[in-house]
Design goal:
The longest helix has 17 residues, at 295-311. The protein has 13 helices and 2 strands. The protein has helices spanning 38-44, 52-60, 65-75, 85-96, 120-123, 133-136, 171-181, 193-199, 212-225, 236-239, 257-264, 276-288, 295-311; strands spanning 151-152, 188-189. The protein has a two-stranded antiparallel ribbon. Helix 3 packs across helix 4 and helix 3 packs across helix 9 (212-225). It is mainly alpha-helical. It folds into 2 domains: 11-209, no CATH class; 234-317, no CATH class. It starts with 37 loop residues before the first helix and ends in a 13-residue tail after the last helix.
Length: 324
């Protein structure tokens, strides 16, 4: 799944960090049952962040640029260098500020207001009817407006480092995995998305755990506790206790890895917490680190992580084996 890093210049010299990903003008499937998770968008088709409709959906559902960047940097190879929060903000701003509606003037992620009556559960994850940049803000000259040719599903894995798993995966992941396992068959995205899904037995059921806000909460929690480390490339399952820092003055309540991860998915706001007070507490914890004053507590975090890695969200409810 690895890509090849460019050889003519250092990664820092490339401003387009997503130039190895499929074109932003690759059309979306037309089917209303084409449900893409947030992680599938960012893993396979990160340039869809230039689509007005994708931006509207994920930001209305609580996305923030630090976590979006974290997800992209940990699911893709990024041969042109890691993408930054500011780069993602500018990428989306360049698209949204071309909208003429008043609420999009001087738009930022923080200033974004969801449409009146927005309900994530009702909106769902369908990309049917979503528009590409060439449709909503075409350029006056050049071939940029021309839709690119369809892409073989197996080729969508190019540049991907970490495939979506568990509740981060829906039908797009199934299609990619199937074509990788059956490379001699001819299946192309987006033209044959619906046909391949039906070939696989029909669309998967979308559950609460698939929703953008819940996925965002999961990854926000992973970022906080360092499950995936972009720069150090080390697995906390191997690091164990060394991944845990002692609590410093200012925070009195100790919270386990499981508690932190579950709390992060409990709320509905942009940081995955329930209210402003919880957000403030999260900031304090983030500054001073997480509580673990003994090896046994470090082992508990490690075991919670292993359970989560093996069994998904259900693993967090499993009993932790204590060392004797």
């Amino acid at each position: 799944m690895s890509g090849t890093a460019p050889t003519s210049a250092s990664p820092e010299k490339f401003w387009d960090k997503l130039k190895d990903a499929p074109s932003p003008n690759l059309p979306f499937p037309s089917s209303t049952t084409a449900n893409f998770t947030l992680i599938e968008h960012l893993t396979f088709l990160p340039n869809t962040l230039k689509s007005w409709d994708v931006i509207e959906r994920i930001v209305s559902n609580g996305a923030s640029t630090p976590i979006l960047a974290y997800i992209i940097n940990n699911t893709r190879d990024m041969p042109y260098g890691l993408i930054t929060n500011n780069s993602l903000l500018r990428l989306m701003q360049n698209a949204v500020r071309l909208r003429t509606e008043e609420r999009y003037q001087n738009w930022t992620v923080q200033k974004h207001r969801a449409p009146v009556g927005w309900n994530e559960k009702n909106v769902g994850l369908s990309v049917g009817g979503f528009r590409t940049p060439a449709t909503t803000y075409p350029r006056k000259h050049g071939k940029w407006n021309d839709p690119p040719p369809p892409v073989a599903f197996k080729d969508l894995v190019s540049g991907v480092k970490r495939m979506p798993k568990g509740k981060d995966a829906l039908d797009l992941t199934r299609c990619v995995e199937y074509h990788i396992e059956h490379p001699d068959e001819e299946w192309v995205y987006p033209d044959q998305f619906e046909a391949l899904v039906m070939h696989l037995g029909g669309p998967m059921e979308v559950t609460y755990e698939h929703l953008d806000s819940v996925a965002f909460g999961r990854w926000a929690a992973m970022k906080r506790v360092g499950i995936v480390r972009v720069r150090e490339r080390e697995d906390p399952a191997e690091v164990g206790v060394s991944a845990v820092r002692k609590m410093k003055a200012g925070v009195t309540k100790k919270r386990t890895f499981a508690e932190l991860l579950m709390a992060a998915g409990a709320g509905g706001n942009r940081d995955g917490t329930e209210n402003k007070n919880a957000d403030e507490e999260r900031v304090k914890e983030e500054k001073v680190g997480f509580a673990a004053e003994t090896d046994s507590e470090g082992e508990e975090i490690r075991q919670s992580y292993l359970n989560w890695k093996k069994h998904g969200i259900e693993g967090l409810y499993m009993p932790i084996k204590k060392r004797g």
